[in-house]
Amino acid sequence: MNHASGTQRQALASNGMRLNELSARTIVDAIRGRRLTAISVMEACLERIAIREPEVKAWSFLDADAARQRARLADEYQASGLPLGPLHGLPVGVKDVFDTSNMPSEYGSQSLRGRRPTEDADAVSLLHRAGAVVVGKTSTSEFGMYHPSPTHNPLDLSRSPGVSSAGSAAAVVDRMVPLALGTQHTASTTLPASFCGAFAFKPSFGFASMQGSNVLVPRMAHIGLLARSLDDLTLFAGAFDHSLADVEVLRHPPRLGLVRGPGWDSVSPDARQALDRLVAGLPVAVVNVDLPSEFDMALEVVLGLLNAHLANRFGALPEQTFRSFCPPLQEGIVAGRSLSAARYLELEAMADRLSALAAALLCDHDALLTLSAPGEATRLEEGPGSGVLSMPWSLCGLPTVSLPLLRGMNDMPIGVQLVGRHGGDRELLGVAAWLTDVVTLDGKSSHEQI
Questions:
Q1: In this structure, how many other beta carbons lie within 10 angstroms of the beta carbon of residue 259?
Q2: Using an 8 Å Cβ cutoff, are 272 and 219 in contact?
Q3: Which domains does the chain have, with CATH numbers?
Q4: Which of 152, 197, 257 is nearest to 402 (CA)?
Q5: What is the DSSP letter of 85?
Q6: Cα separation of 218 and 213, whole Å?
Q7: Of 84, 226, 341, 346, which has the highest C-beta tally within 10 A?
């Protein structure tokens, strides 16, 4: 990996911040205003990656020279006077479960080593049209399963960065790139965001095409967006839906419902206390919401559907290939093989029922509030953590936002998860902006100038 030049290494914003540390919105505005070039920002990002990647291991594929060439092309495109997309010149990481025609797309699996698709995934094509410069592919666990990826938590290298979008979360938090694309079937974006301290948005089901990506369960397949601020998160979302590019803070306090849903018994005492303190300090009353009893089955439904689809997709592969898979994938395939057609239909019906019940809950609340994870990032030897607090909302296809507003007993981040109504993505981001605005983070404010 080539290091940046000495001149580029010293490139700083007027407030002393290095270019890779600037917010996505600041970078985009400065490039558009010709106060920065795409290549200067790319060089800063590549320098950071060169320094930190040996420890963090956020990337499964990175060609620094090719990334530089793409950044130069972005600058040439701008010089030609053609219209610019909303992410023009911005370095972005893409989770290696999206197909990319110019990079390996291996889904974290030895069984796909060297795979080179001929077409980009729809989401990647959209990023290109928006002007983003894809730096490389971020690391993931094998086929997005609950298994450790090579990535380490950038805040504490002895801790897990979470599940399959871990490389994307780590790259963003470590200031290697300002934005990164992930996915979520159960908790693959929300959990890494919580463990690493990123802002994350899992939109409503159907928000973006998943064509050309690793779809495990079609009804639970979502994109995931990761950033270092809510403002950058809305910029990112705006590339997919222009109405989300600028979300204003609510003019009236939101109606919030506090949920302690399935898996709450696994929540650590410090996480419970941190959430209770946050809720107690809000300038609005937060109503305790008891979920209908059917939600006690949510985790069983999620895992049952997942296993069924794993068996359907991988169950007929040769035994040698099966034995090469990570243990969670093998176990899921075996469990899915024993699932009857009648039981699968029961699980699908229960998923529909839970979706209807969740929609009814959100008739009385602007958002549901809960935790993104049961506690701080686990130690590496303890595994990638649990996504139980996100699973019901992924199953129901509801939009969620994870905000790094809490701290645990070891001063590691714990995310606050907001859940909105299906299709209410803009409203949910508005609630997230309100909550972020009323909660003080370290008493600090950031002023970026170029």
A1: 23
A2: no
A3: 6-244 (3.90.1300.10), 256-438 (3.90.1300.10)
A4: 197
A5: P
A6: 11
A7: 226
**Residues annotated as catalytic (active site), given as ranges:** 95, 164, 188
Helix (H) or strand (E) holding 74: helix 64-79
DSSP element (H, E) containing 361: helix 341-361
Burial of 449 (0-12, 13-18, 19+ CB in 10 A): exposed
pLDDT tens per residue, range 197-239: 999 999 999 999 999 999 999 999 999 999 999 999 999 999 9
Q: Are 207 and 90 in contact (CB under 8 A)?
A: no
Distance CA 397, CA 258 (A): 19
Dihedral Cα 163, 146, 191, 91, nearest 10 deg: 30
Give residue for tokens 């303890």.
382
The closest alpha carbon to 303, from 192, 394, 398, 377, belongs to: 394
Residue with tokens 């985009």: 28
Cross-strand bridge partners of residue 136: 62, 93
pTM of the entire predicted model? 0.95
Q: What is the DSSP string of 55-72?
A: HH--EEEE-HHHHHHHHH
Q: Which H or E element spans position 41?
A: helix 38-56
Identify the three-state secondary structure at position 172. helix
**If you search the block for the tokens 């609005």, which residue do you land on?**
284
88-118 pLDDT, tens digit per residue, is 999 999 999 999 999 999 999 999 999 999 9
Closest C-alpha among 146, 80, 76 to residue 108: 146
Say if CB 421 and CB 286 are below 8 A apart.
no
C-beta of residue 143 within 8 angstroms of C-beta of residue 329 = yes
3-class SS of residue 433: helix
Other Cβ atoms within 10 Å of 412 Cβ, number: 21
Looking at 216-358, which runs of residues are DSSP E strands?
Answer: 222-227, 256-259, 287-289
Q: How far apart are CA 65 and CA 69, in angstroms?
A: 6
Identity of the residue numbered 66: A
10 Å CB burial of residue 168 (0-12, 13-18, 19+) is buried
